[in-house]
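Whether sequence alone determines local backbone shape is best considered at the level of individual chains. The sequence in question and its structure tokens are set out directly beneath this paragraph.

***
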Amino acid sequence: MMKGKTGPLALCMIQPEPLPGSYRNMGMKIDEIIDLALREAGMVAENGFDGFILQNMNDMPVKQTAPPEAVAGMTAIAARLRAAFSELVMGVLVNWDGVAALSVAEAAGADFVRVEHLFTGVEVTSAGLLEGQCCEIAQLRKRLGSKIPVYADVYEVHGVPLGAKPIEDAAWESVHEAFADGLFISGRTAAESIELIRRARTRVPETPIFLGGGATGDNICELMQHFDGVSVATWVKNGDMKNPIDPARAKRFMDEIRRARELRV
């Protein structure tokens, strides 16, 4: 996944326009959506990020099982991004369907999958209850002979877990009972994120753990002394994921990433 990179990995979220068939799509065709995603991926490359995670965030609201048209649209976008930016790390996140995400990733040749909602347990979200998909994902990996790493969020901050266990126990279960290859963890503040990863490390010391959210140009250097990577969206887009990447903010963010790498050598 690192593709020759050393130190914490910096990934930017690419969140295309609403896909055909989704509630917020106002008639934009897939070709135009792909062109816009390619333009944004170009900005990711120009601003020095190591890669990106492709997510259909703008399709919300969604239930857990992605509809066929979303899977088809994400596959079309991912395949074009992979072909155009083979040097970048590419992750896939399909809201909120890890089985669909792995299917897209396999078809497009992605480097990893992020399962944000939900790998293990049960969670209350704005769309209702979501249930862990670790069994279905494991079955699909077996059927496909998939070697694509699966990175799982542990207690994503926008949902409310039912029967929550201590973060260190939930992290251990995700890795050792559900077989995640890596984790995403984040708290509601930078201090909480650091506390959570410190606790998780007591049970999964060798597992790659990425920061799932809350990174800014002010806190990223400190955070990357604890995490193996980060996915960023809102801060480098001036507070709104619908905005394009702000080159000035992206430069500041990546300057701090490079400083974090130097501190960790």
Summary: The domain at 9-260 is CATH 3.20.20.70 (TIM Barrel). The chain has a mean pLDDT of 95. Residues 202 and 261 are 23 Å apart (CA to CA).
